[in-house]
Amino acid sequence: MSKKAVTFDFSNSLRNTTRAALFGIALISFPLANAQAELPERLQPFAAFDATQTYKVDYSPWSTFTGAFANERRGKVTLAYATIAPQGIEFLKKYIGYLQNFPVTKLNKNEQLAYWLNLHNTLAVFQQVNNYKKSTPEELIQGRAWQVKLVRVEGVTLSLKDIEAILFENFDDPKVLYGLCFGTRSGPSLRMEPFTGDTVSADLDDAARRFVNSRSEVNVRKGTVTLSEYYSWFKDEAFDGSDEKLLKHVSTYAASKKMAAIDASGGLAFNKFNYRLAEHKPRTAPPASASPLGGGGGGAFPAGS
User: Fold this and answer.
1) Who has the most CB within 10 Å: 6, 33, 127, 148?
2) What is the mean pLDDT of residues 204-220?
3) Rounded CA gap, 249 and 244, in Å?
4) SS3 sequence, 57-124?
5) Cβ atoms of residues 98 and 41 within 8 Å
6) What one-character DSSP code corresponds to residue 47?
7) pLDDT above 70 covers what percent of the chain?
């Protein structure tokens, strides 16, 4: 007998958001390299999956947020950072509050992968929005505070670096690279729609192909493959530090002409990461009293919230 999908009722979760710990969501920054080879003991509970469960997370608030503040052009998504505060910040806080109170270990493996990617990217966008014009994206992305605990999931306080460690260790798939977004010009693009367990693997494959076949991220010239510096951030976690494994992976997703050039190459280099925000300026500013999210910034959360 097939099981009916169950969507978690998070009415209490949102009501408790103001009391729930959104740990230190302020000036957050992070070193990206040298994640631990194995999960530390306190993160071990997140190695559990329940393959029999059909729980699903409701990510519709993310689509509401991007519908209000994002544009997509030629496969790249930008945000109107200048117009997001204050309504968008409060909206993201409520959404983060819901996500952190979800019983993630009750999910099957694909649903967990989608969950951790969506939580990571929502927190990263929140950091860029909350520190807009206060700190540069590079200061945020390369500072020490990426290890600061931001959320509490199933009683465990987590930083963005913790979430990255969970993703690379538990799922052991280099494709995770293409699901992590930082709101910058370089690196994988933000998504208009959230990841879902039903399509996360195919979506990561698609993101990998688009990234690898972008000249700004992967280029071959005079026998040298020049990759985005982003690959070097996670080279140890995703490719065991091996240039050979990295190039073989990139070749797998390259179009035929680029694949042949990569396979025939004799050198590897990394270009400089572009830390500028993936940002667009709205043609007209919204009225001061208007909220693109509706409801004074509360936005569209599922029934019961």
Assistant:
1) 127
2) 97
3) 9
4) CCCHHHHHHHHHHEEEECCEEEECHHHHCCHHHHHHHHHHHHHHCCCHHHCCHHHHHHHHHHHHHHHH
5) no
6) G
7) 79
Q: Which residue has the tokens 């740990």?
A: 23
**Residue ranges in the chain assigned as alpha helix (H):** 11-15, 60-69, 81-84, 87-100, 109-130, 137-142, 160-171, 200-212, 229-233, 235-239, 243-253, 256-263
Residue 250: what pLDDT?
A: 98
| Distance, CA of 255 to chain centre | 25
Q: Check whether the bond before 86 is cis (ω within 30° of 0).
A: yes
For residue 239, what are its two tokens? 């490719």
Q: Note the pTM of the prediction, 2 decimals.
A: 0.84
| 3-state SS assignment for residue 16 | coil
**CA distance linking residue 77 with residue 73, whole number of Å:** 6
Is the alpha carbon torsion for 242, 112, 180, 28 positive or negative? negative
Contacts of 52 (CB under 8 A, 6+ apart): 3, 108
Of 133-147, 189-203, 271-285, least confident by mean pLDDT is: 133-147
| 6-7 and 55-56 beta bridge pairing | parallel
Pairing relationship of beta strands 156-158 and 218-221 according to DSSP bridges = unpaired
Q: Compute the residue count for the chain.
A: 305
Low-confidence winner among 25-34, 38-47, 48-57, 61-70 (lowest mean pLDDT): 25-34
Can you say how many angstroms the Cα of residue 217 is from the centroid of all Cα atoms in its chain? 18
Q: What is the pLDDT of residue 287?
A: 46
